[in-house]
């Protein structure tokens, strides 16, 4: 009942709604994402009290909200899952300061205003939002289907049987703030298309709009506030600013001291494969646009245990398999490093090579060949600042028809060892950077140019001839015949 009274006082503008939510959300903005839930027209849900000001909705409380909504409401669920989102996205791009013509959420606003019982949670802890698919899957007892508007138009839903339709939405950030605005506008158009298709099919639904993680970091909030991107009631007394400074200081301390351990695969009690990277990311080409996914948080970090089933190692072959879920719309995704070692007669020693980097997803395999560029002595580890398939590539698709041509992989500050591992530490690293780096070549060329200029100058000076006759001012003038 209280929720209905509040909603009746809200104007028809979504901007006013998000401003109220932003004022209520005085917690740790860099660890929260908003969540919006609504139903199709004519379908009402039981009244649920929104959280109090400053309260962060955890995983258990979020599950309670969803359970109450799905027990009564439609069980055809549309989950619009954006890669990143924070409440500041609505205040910056939702026309929150009277510029309604600049709002990028007209379809979302219309859906919330037309729904009899919308539920808006401004502050959901991002681990809870990250697990929303699993919660919905358990409550609906059905597997998620990753869709797009074109596929949905060909699907016929049944109101009596539950369905979990997931629509992945990208989020882009860059030096130009317009890039995020344009992508959010495109995401709102996707929401509008999906809702329009559902309306034509006359199937009742429950829609949820949230994200996997926040898009705003604490370090950037103060700058955006200065640009008019948001405000905080605590800044007047300096409390918010002090907390953000302390949080940033703690983050820098962790970056300096807390280097996360490498991925470690053991055969029995002995470690046989080690992998470490600052960044592991993959991209796929869809509709002429590259969609990125960062695998680093699921692979490294405190408390993270990547799934390594399928990995193996022996004296000549090593295979490290990293298993993931929900990567770029693929329910099952594997990142595989295949290595081998053998004796080379020319160098009279054993070397190991990274033969291939493979991507396995939903029964399809994409293979990148790395044996030509990634190798090291068998007793060493291999390290490289950047291992990519598109920028100075060292990983190339296995063939012109291989699905790898639709993918990009990028590993930053990459180090791997598949043989002769002692303990849990890498052996001496063979770096991919050659002796003659671009900087050394530039220095050599500059020095050579200076030597050439100096040589030419000395040669010109040596060609100068002095006069063999001099005029004595006290004597008669020298007469030089013209014949000379």
Strand content: 25-35%
User: Which percent bin holds the helix content?
Assistant: 25-40%
Biggest beta-sheet profile: 7 strands, mixed
Radius of gyration: 32 Å
Instruction: Compute the separation of the termini in Å.
Output: 120 Å
Helical/strand content category:
alpha+beta
Extended strand count:
20
How confident overall, as mean pLDDT?
80
**Broad shape:** elongated
What's the helix count? 12
Provide the low-confidence segments as ranges: 1-30, 218-240
Chain-wise SSE layout:
Layout: H1 2-9, H2 14-24, E1 32-39, H3 59-72, E2 76-84, H4 87-93, H5 106-114, E3 119-125, H6 126-130, H7 132-140, E4 144-146, H8 149-153, E5 163-169, H9 177-201, E6 206-213, H10 218-226, H11 239-257, E7 263-267, E8 270-276, E9 279-286, E10 289-294, E11 312-313, E12 317-327, E13 330-344, E14 349-361, E15 364-369, E16 375-377, E17 381-388, E18 396-397, E19 407-417, E20 429-431, H12 438-462
Fill in the keyword field for this structure.
about 30% strand; about 475 residues; seven-stranded mixed β-sheet; elongated; seven-stranded antiparallel β-sheet; about 30% helix
Give the structure's gist in a few sentences.
With 484 residues, this protein is of the alpha+beta class. The chain is built from twelve helices and 20 strands. Strands 7, 8, 9, 10, 17, 19 and 20 form a seven-stranded mixed β-sheet that branches.
